[in-house]
Amino acid sequence: MAVIFYSFFLRLYQAGILIASLFNKKARQWISGRKGLQARLETAFAGNTAPVIWVHCASLGEFEQGRPVVEILKKEYPSHRILLTFFSPSGYEIRKNYEGADWIFYLPLDTRRNAVAFVATVRPSLVVFVKYEYWYHFLHTLKEQKIPALLISAIFREHSLFFKPHGGFHRSMLQCFSHIFVQDAESRIRLQTIYPSKDITVAGDTRFDRVVQIAAGFRPLPVIESFVADQPFVIVAGSTWPEDEQHLSEYMNSISNKTALIIAPHEINASHINEILRLFPGAVLYSALNNDPGLKSNILIIDNIGMLSRLYYYAAVAYIGGGFNSSGIHNTLEAAVFSKPVVFGPNFQKFAEAVNLVKIKGGFSYSTSNQLETILYDLESDRDLRHQSGMEAGELVTQNKGATQIIFNYIRENLL
Q: CATH code for 40-204?
């Protein structure tokens, strides 16, 4: 009965996306990206004789989390080919040309027919799901065909549906994984009540490895270097949402010093960019500054995608957006790896790294504009505080890297 309800819900979801596609770009991409998908898969895989490693990510954040694993597998198993799939346009549209994979597709809707056809076409030797993607028909098809499936960088919270009396349907999906790599010991303790403990490894979070990779490959941004050259105190605000921007606007209006602010919003559509310009009179766009370096302002709005992880290098303090959304804050580690203090809104508790940053005073959370003003004033006026906070943040990243190697060692010793 649960499977029937699940399938019915997916069809409702598909219908909702179809309606939303009439006025929403991402919904249109979700629909169009799946048109003729099975035929395109069959064409792409026709004649392939190489073993296939299939890695699935929900969206862009999960891709960045899984990327170190993809790249070590690509390097160590050059005779294998990599299939990368996404559920969301936010991942696929940005990474559809990623050179580390041999094929990149959307994941078909999780129906029994789609799952069987997909697996028969792709014929994976190994499957890796990143963090929290659970698709009933795909997972059960893999189990039926005895294809090993791993879940990596997983985290299991106390109130998760898996541990509820009515969570049997979801628990059945967990049993389809050959091995689960969790982020922390607490997740292992919870998970082993419903899943064999011998098949659980505490590996940590591969995002730490990813941000270390990014920092090691840092390339300067000349336009940004020129912008910050004469600025004594620079705040880089990444992945911001409207409420974040409202608080930052109130802060900038409350101070008399020449603090510089760089905003890289989560959404860069024209209406959102115009709203940010309204909040910050006199701000300049990156695209305009790039064309005319003579433009002057202490506020810069980034109107492109792909620069954020390098922008944090130029910060005195990093502001991480999303803390006023139900989904919570975005990636704090991209800033912490550069030993920068991080500041964010109140919804951060489900992100272990953010909780730990607050504990060690490498991160600061706030709920009101007055609190934000106090935090930023303290970090601006007290260089020792700012330095120590940044060092604590950087050390957290250093101490927690290594998950990728643990996962790879298991694959090498047990599967490939």
A: 3.40.50.11720
pTM: 0.89
The C-alpha torsion from 174 through 151 and 306 to 262, rounded to 10°, is: 70
Domain 40-204 identical in fold to domain 220-400: yes
As to burial, measured by CB atoms within 10 angstroms (0-12 exposed, 13-18 middle, 19+ buried), residue 165 is exposed
- Structural contact between residues 350 and 328, judged by C-beta atoms closer than 8 angstroms: yes
Q: Would you kindly state where each structural domain of the chain is located, as residue ranges?
A: 40-204, 220-400
DSSP designation for 314: G
Task: Give pLDDT tens digits for 263-300.
Answer: 999 999 999 999 999 999 999 999 999 999 888 899 99
Using CA atoms, how far apart are residues 299 and 259, in angstroms rounded to an integer? 9
CATH number of 220-400: 3.40.50.2000
Measured between alpha carbons, how far is 388 from 22 in angstroms, rounded to an integer?
51
| Structural tokens at position 309 | 């992880």
Q: pLDDT for 116-169, tens place per residue?
A: 999 999 999 999 999 988 999 999 999 999 999 999 999 998 889 999 999 999
Q: Give the residue among 366, 320, 333, 112 at the shortest CA–CA distance from 207.
A: 333
